[in-house]
Every structure is written in C-alpha cells, then in structure tokens.
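Worked example 4.2. Below are the chains of a multi-component assembly; read each line carefully before continuing.
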Amino acid sequence: MLANYLIGLREGLEAALVVSILVAYLVKTGHRDRLPAIWVGVASAIVLSLAFGALLSFTRQSMSFQAREAFGGVMSILAVALVTWMIFWMKRTARFLKRDLEGRLADALTVGRAALVTIAFVSVAREGIETSLFIWSAAQASSGTSPLAGATLGLLTATALGYLLYRSAVHINLATFFRYTGIGLVIVAAGVLAYGFHDLQEARWIAGLTHTAFDVSAQVPLSSWYGTLLKGALNFNPTPTYVELGVWATYLVVVMTLFLWPPKAQPAPRPRVETPATA
Amino acid sequence: MRILRSVSVVLVVATLSACSKDSESAGSSYDVKAGDTTCSVEETSVPAGTVTFQVENTGSDVTEVYVYGKDGDAFSKIMGEVENIGPGTSQDFTVDLPAGDYEVACEPGMVGDGIRTQLNVG
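Applying the procedure described above to all two chains together yields the following structure tokens:
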C-alpha cells in the first residue's frame, strides 16, 4: 500500500506544482476569468491519458519501447520549452509592476488562454500515459491490500501539496511571487530536460547510458518520502549519467542567469512640470 | 484552442500508430514474477520474434523490468522495459527479439543493475 501511495504521489507532484503556479499567477494578476483555460488543459490531459491507458491495458497491447521513449522524450522537451517560455514571460511582465502592486495585469501582458491550456495540458500529459497504465494496473489488481486506494491517496496528496503551494503564494507580493516561482520553474525544467535526455539515452539516440556520474541511491531511495518528493518535484535521479548531469547543469546555469539578470534600465520618466494656470 | 487541437491530434496519431504496429504479430507470451529479491521468468528459452512479458510485482517495493541485449561484452542494450509496477499489480510489455542471448532484469526500487536471468532466444 505504501509503495503504491508513493508512486501516486511521485507521479502527480510535478504536474500539481506547475498547475498550482499557473492558478496562483492568474489569481494574483487579476485574471480569474482565464482559470477555465487551465482546467480545460488539465481535464483533457487526464481524460486522454486514462483513455489511452485503458485502451492499452484492457486490450493487452503495449506501446513498443521505441514509441514509449520517443513519446516521453518529445513530451519532456515540449514541456521544457513551454515552461521556459512561461518563465521569461513572467520576467518580462514583472517589470511593469511596482513592488507592492496587487492590481490587475493588463490583458495583453497576461498569458493568453491558448497558451494556458497548452502548458496545463502538457504538464499533466507528459507523464500521463505512464501514470494511467499504473492506475489501470492498480485497478485490475486482485491483491487484498488495494493498490488502487494507495495510488489514489498518493495522487490526492500531490494535489493537496499543489493547493498548499497556491495558498502560500496568494499572500506574497507579486514581484516576489514572480521571482521565486521563476527560480522554482527553472529548477523543475532542468530536471525534466535531464529526464528527457535519459530517455533518449535509453532509446540509444544519444550514447552514454551506462556511464553513470554518481550513485546516491542508497542515500536517497525512491521508497523514502524524501526520495519520492525529490523525484516527483525535481525529477531527481540518484544515478544520473554524465549526459544527464551535464544537461541539467547547463540548462540550470544558463537559464537561471538569464532569468536573474537585471533587465535593461528603464529610461527615467520625464518629470512633470507643473505650470501655473494662466488667467 | 488550435494549439490544443494540434497537440491532441499529434498524441492520438502517435499512440495509435504505436499500437497498431504491435497488434499485427501475435508472438509468444510469458509470465515474469518480480519480487524484492527474486526474478523468475516462466521460460528461459523462447522463440525469436515478438515476445510479450506479463510482469507481476510479487514484492513490496515498486519495480521495473528490462530486457537487455548484448552491447559488446555487457548486457546493457535496452530491448524493452516496463517501469512503475506497484506491488500487487501487473503490467505487460512487448519486445521484438532476434535470435541471441539476453538478460531479463528485475529492478526493485527502480535502481541498480537488478536481479538478472539469462534468456536464450532462438
């Protein structure tokens, strides 16, 4: 039961965190009207993943190894591209805000509905089929301790953690929110990119699968709560290859630097000259 | 909305094309019982072609099963895999295996080289 709970938690965590950041972003910039776009993306990803998982599971077919890796690899790279875009969108719009402004962000400066649907969809769908296959296998299990209950509780916990993140984001000022979610998303995206490259190494599109950089699996096992959270939120791999480590570090350093680099100084506003009214 | 539709279409086509490829050849099918310290494969000599492994996790930890082919001296070439098998659950995976020697690896905790069993395909 515990192991299935941890799988559910791990599989749901990253998507829950990204979606809750998207929701907090819309609420804090005064655009609750765009929230349905996020729910459309999340719901369609869940429905599609469950449907394909059921199809594969109940008809006892399976995706070929190459197809699975290709799908996972493509979705991971797409997710990284979208999240990176979101990070820099937030950086760009952050400069239009004063530090303590909590008002509504102009429509044109707020992420559009199509982009919101897509980011929410890809964040959930990225691991969607794999998670769905796990859920269906848990549902079909005849074992007494009900793997499905464990898995479901795990997914619910992931959702709850996402909600907690949203609640804590609501109270901080907007500029701080943009800064810290940006930093967090860079770290998440680095993990997804490294994971995508690992998939490509497994599919032998990139060499070096057996060249492991280090092994801390004894210190950070997947069966522990911290191992689960690290893997779930940050795609932490306790036995990364050199390629994975290199990709992770490169993305992190480059994108974090670009994100934290102060924007070009704004020209000083022309002082308003008060002219006395002439009679 | 256009973006969403295109992404969905791509996903549908990709997944369906992967499915239909596997349904053409029936192939042979074998049970694998993956435990915390054991990895028992129903048959260790199987005919070449499309082989399906029905993996049951009989242990208490999450597990994954790989079929490794020879890459030089080591069995490190992944022919097929199934990950994220929770305790008490079963999942299948299918591999195309030409004649040769392989190893089936059960990796409890989804880490390490795993518990390996020789597989002769011919």
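Take a moment to check your reading of the output against the notes. Residues 20-25 of chain B have pLDDT under 50 and may be disordered. The two ends of chain B are 51 Å apart (CA to CA).
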